[in-house]
Amino acid sequence: MQNDEVVIQSYLKITSEGKKSKLPARLDFWQSATGLFLGLFMIAHMFLVSSILLGEEVMYKVTKFFEGSMIFHQEKPFIVSIVAAIVIVAFVTHAFLALRKFPTNLQQFRIFKTHKSLMKHGDTSLWWIQACSGFALFFLASVHLFVVLTQPSTIGPNASAYRFVHQHFWILYIFLLFAVELHASIGLYRLCVKWGWFENLGLQTLRNIKKGMSVFFIVLGLLTFGAYVKIGLSQKVTPATSIQEMQQLDAQLYGNK
Question: Is the predicted pLDDT of residue 111 greater than 80, yes or no?
Answer without folding.
Answer: no
